[in-house]
Amino acid sequence: MNSIFFRIYGGLLAALVLTAALGALALHITNEVRAEQYRERLASGTFHLMSSHLETLDAVERKRSIALWSRLLGVPLRIQSIHSLALDGRDRSHILRGKVLVRHSESAASKIYSLINTPEQKVLVGEVWRVSEQLARATIYMLIDELVRYPAAEQAARLAALTEEHRFGFDLRLLTVDKTGLDADQLRRIEEGDTVMALDQGGDAIRVFAGVNEAPWVLMLGPVYQVNPYPPQLLLLIAVLGLSMVGILMYLLVRHLERRLQDLESAASRIAQGHLEVRVAEGGADSVGRLAVRFNDMASRLKILINVQGDMVRGVAHELRTPLARLRFALDMAATAKEEQVRLKHLQGMDQDIEDMDVLLDEMLTYARLEAGAPSLKMVRVDLNALVTQVLKELAPLRPEIALKHTNVEGGELWVDAEARYLQRAVQNIVSNAQRYARSKVTVVCRVQHELCYIAVEDDGQGIDEALREKVFMPFLRLDDSRTRASGGYGLGLAIVKRIMHWHSGRVRIEDSRMLGGARIVLVWPQHAESVSDE
Q1: 12's torsion region: left (phi>0), alpha (psi -120 to 50) or beta?
Q2: Which residue from 61, 216, 301, 481 lies 20 to 30 Å from 98 (Cα-Cα)?
Q3: What are 268-310's pLDDT values in tens digits?
Q4: Distance CA 217, CA 144 (A)
Q5: What are the start-end ranges of the E strands in 384-513?
Q6: At residue 524, does pLDDT exceed 90?
Q7: Phi and psi torsions of 23, nearest 5°
Q8: Where are the beta strands (DSSP E) in 186-293?
């Protein structure tokens, strides 16, 4: 995704979906654990009570007690060796630590395991379909069977001792009839020896009541609350954790963008301090990545412009020194000259020096415009043949000893799209450069092939070494061979040509002339182009 908006939106959506999925999974796992703990808490006291009772009995009495409890409670009970149970090591360790184990099943009866603390390591196993109701009735039966062995005055203390000893997961209390809060029908059932189950007013818990034989007490078990799958505390915790996760994911997502923007800011500050070589990483195709590309382009361009500016200042200062010195000398000589002819000669020299400085400034301004940025190019249809002919006609009188020859390979008119003024300047520069270093002959060849325009200018001079061909396009550079300062020029001509070709989406190259033996400069650019305006 290239858009920062879609990246952040997609990241936020993914974070929300991931958080919701993890929250649902966490809630499911937590409720599974809570339900298992709830069932073990309900079964713990009753099965501990039965197991402790079986510890003191022999094998025959155990079978008799198991058969009696199974018939009265409707709960199948049996005694097995712990080694014969299909349990893993974790469950066996749980049982051996004296804890009650409940294995719940949706399609079958839940199995409850409780250790009978004997050397044989026997385990009481029960199969209960409805854990709450069946265990409540079993607990009531077992407790009353234990309490009737004590006087009524001691039964409350014995109940408290049993509750603490066997770790019941609910309250057990002895109440008088008037404090039970039961209606007449429920009290009648208790007097008849039945067990009564009553819902709390809120409907979220049950209480079980049974009368104690030959005692004024009613045993109350409960309240026993149902497992709430969506407790507010758990939901609040999951919400806090979810929001924290969303915050972390969003931070990681935004932090990456923020770090890239900070890199841009740091690079801009360093460039402002003069470190023009600083660049930023260009990874990514989003807006920040494109901004990084533009920033690096800008920094490279800025470095080039500052270097060009420095070169131009140094070059102009150096190039102006000679004509200015000649001007000062000629001015002094003209002021002291006694003959008119001598004075006129010095004045003519001064005029030539002024013209040289004017040409230098014109070259410098042209190069600066082309180097500073995209100039305003108005592309028009230009007859290439006519343009080259006009250039040769203007330059021929400047060096009459150099023969200029124009060859049109295709014959007739050659129409191309170009900025006529700049193209003429480029052709003029390379032809005048060839004139300056040729011995006797310069040829110009024009052609259009595969929608590309070619202008090749060759001379019969000494040519340019291959190692120096790229350097000649640098501003104010002149080579130290036959193309010396004595030949004239300011070292800006070919630099201007290169920039003109650049803005025409073309190129310029230097080769050896196979026909004349000197240098061959070739201009290549597309035949068709669109106008370019200043930005």
Answers
A1: alpha
A2: 61
A3: 898 888 888 888 888 777 777 888 888 888 888 788 778 767 7
A4: 10
A5: 403-408, 415-418, 441-449, 452-459, 507-512
A6: yes
A7: -65, -45
A8: 196-199, 205-211, 218-225
Which of 427, 385, 386 has its CA nearest to residue 408? 385
Output the CA angle 196-199-201, nearest 5 degrees.
Answer: 140
Q: 373: which 2 tokens?
A: 């940025």
- Rounded-to-integer distance, Cα 490 and Cα 314, Å: 12
Question: Could you give phi then psi for residue 492, rounded to 5 degrees?
Answer: -110, -15
> How many angstroms separate the first and last alpha carbons of the chain?
29
- Which residue in the block uniquely carries the two structure tokens 């230098």? 360
Note whether 438 and 502 are within 8 A (CB): no
Tokens describing residue 372: 């500073």
Closest residue by Cα to residue 165 from 52, 288, 67: 52
- Residue in this structure with the two tokens 């039945």, named with its chain if needed: 194
Res 442: pLDDT: 92
Give CA–CA dist 285/10, Å, rounded: 16
Tell me if residue 148 falls in helix, strand or coil. Answer: coil
Q: Which two tokens stand for residue 214?
A: 């030959």
Pair 47, 117: CB distance under 8 Å: no
Q: Coil, strand, or helix at residue 23?
A: helix
* Whole-angstrom distance, CA of residue 521 vs CA of residue 451: 20
Phi-psi sector, 224: left (phi>0), alpha (psi -120 to 50), beta: beta
Phi, psi (deg, nearest 5) at residue 228 = -90, 110
Token pair, residue 184, equals 């007449």
Strands 403-408 and 441-449 turn out to be parallel
Distance (Å, whole) CA 501 – CA 424: 12
Look at residue 478 and tell me whether its pLDDT is greater than 70.
Answer: no
- Estimate the crossing angle of helix 493-503 against helix 420-437, to 10 degrees: 150
On whether the CB atoms of residues 312 and 475 are closer than 8 A, the answer is yes
Write the CA distances from 401 to 29, 255, 322, 395, 405, integer angstroms: 100, 72, 27, 12, 13
Buried b (16+ CB within 10 A) or exposed e, 302-330: eeeeeebeebbeebbeebbeebeebbeeb
122 contacts 83 by C-beta, under 8 angstroms:
no
Question: Which tokens in the block code for residue 194?
Answer: 């039945």
Residue 252 carries which side chain, given as an amino acid letter?
L
75 Cβ contact partners less than 8 Å away, ≥ 6 residues apart: 69, 126, 127, 128, 134, 138
Predicted TM-score (pTM) of this structure: 0.46
Amino acid code (one letter) for 367: Y
For residue 112, how many other CB atoms are within 10 A of its CB? 26
Determine the longest span between alpha carbons in the chain, in angstroms: 160
Percent of the chain residues past pLDDT 90, beyond the cut: 6
